[in-house]
Amino acid sequence: MSDIIKLLPDAVANQIAAGEVVQRPASAVKELLENAIDAGADTISLVIKDAGKALIQVIDNGFGMSETDARLSFERHATSKIKSAADLFNIETKGFRGEALASIAAIAQVELKTRVEGNDLGTQIVVEGSKVKEQEVCSTAKGTSFSIKNLFFNVPARRNFLKSNPVEIKHIIEEFQRVAMVHADISFSMYNNGNEVFNLKNGSFRQRIVGVFGDKMNQKLVPVEENTDIVSIAGFVGKPEFAKKTRGEQYFFVNDRFIKNSYLNHAVQNAFDQLLSKDQFPSYFLKLYIDPAKIDINIHPTKTEIKFEDERSIYAIIRTAVKQALGKHNIAPTLDFEQESSFNVPLMRSTDTIKVPTIKVNKDYNPFETKTVSPGSRSIIDRSQRKQSSENWESLYTDFEKDSTDILGNQSQKEEQQVISPEWNSNEAPDFDESEKQTLIQLHAKFILAQLKSGSLIIDQERAHTRILYETYIQNFAKGKGMTQQLLFPETIDFTSADAELINELQTEVKQLGFDFEKMGKSSFVVSGVPVELKEPNIKKIIEGLLEQFKMNESELKLKKHENLAISMARSASVRSGKKLSYEEMKALVDELFSCEMPYSLPNGKPTIITLNLEDLNQQFDY
Q1: Model confidence over 153-195: pLDDT tens digits?
Q2: What's the CATH fold of domain 10-203?
Q3: Contacts by 557-563, CB closer than 8 A, 24 or more apart
């Protein structure tokens, strides 16, 4: 039998490694930014074109590399960070395995320019698919410029699996924020298709958070600080009133490295117990400093997961530190008693004279007297007045039946004028009881109860409205434009840099939903029109909810871009549970629901309607 095991060529081995290290353009961005930080740079610039598919360029002013180091940097497992296995347990740098550049060069066209301080000329190397095409001296600035062009050019299957540009840009911005946020002593900038997205000057950790998420973030932060022998904690948590429905602004950094850890996340969530509802998530930006020998960061290819030696103690310390911070800054709930007004005594001046209180007694007061009791007081009706007022009471009911008929007739006519929705469609709607067709009852300001011939129908009002709006927006995309209601006064809305960039990428589709807006400045937009279906007056809240839902759906649901935007907008604009509805509103909601193509569930499969069968109810009561 012939031998069947053979060594893989370096180019193939590098492509396999790239599958773990470089999953999408954002992965390459992370590796290059971390290399620039390890190089001692204090100014780093990121340039993106076509969501990283055409170009990813990172420019730094770090140490630079010699000609030999520049050539060796593209070899597998070539690194300056570690020399022995023991160094793996004392890692303080970002990259250390020496796989990043070799993996990137295997699946892209790479150009490296680098110069060490003190040298007149630098080195330029061009690599395509792990093959060195050029290596020559060049004139370049101190530091390193690393350009990745045509990512996955030789792996078309991987390129086909990339998401749309807005999604890939979102991931790139997330990686940029994670790296830039914790390194506040370094100036960072980012450009996307020639537009400046971030320009972050060096400063404090708080200033960096505000620079990334906008000026309004400053008032939302509560400082957290705790020093123990196990771990030192520094950073901020968001105030409870600014909590969100998604886990967007949650960051853990261990020794200045971003990590994901659901166990520690639960510690923070637990610290907000009784301050937030179950569907709310607090923001936090916490830096943990631990002895490198007590953690293992080499358990995941992307190094976003860390193994702790004493995770339970760290959990308890984080929870306690956050609770103390909330209590120290009067965020924790306190008893709020109404102040006794009698204690509101004005302050006296030293020159004021103290007046002795006097008591006035009306000697003529008689509690049994039915006449006027005192000047200026209210008269009491005596028996004669009461008797007079009770006479001729029968006249109140003259023509009572005629007046009642007129009132009820006007009221029913008014209700008919208010109901503008179509009548029940017997082909679409369930088999409603004819005698009870007009009976709709709202339960707990959340559900709508309707009676059927065979039982009862319970409709979730929020999900029902979401389904209605979803199909409306899908139709708008099919037509190419939705109905727009122009605002009397255009509204200017400021967004974070990341959200502003996402709106830029989605502006064609967002306008098809029915919005009319124009960009004004770096991250501001002037909204002059909104979809006609929109009832919420807070336009910024709706758009921010749209973006949050869109980002969350990208990670949880596998939807096309139009479907994602349609369901995101529907969820953001739908009527909420807890809102009391009039009969006309319930009737219109039910009518429109059963005119939908799929009224019984949302796109994610969750039901909008449940049916209570009469036979099942009879069995529950042992009939």
Answers
A1: 888 888 888 888 888 898 999 999 999 999 999 999 999 998 8
A2: Heat Shock Protein 90 (3.30.565)
A3: 557/603, 557/604, 559/603, 561/164, 561/166, 561/509, 562/474, 562/477, 562/509, 563/474, 563/603
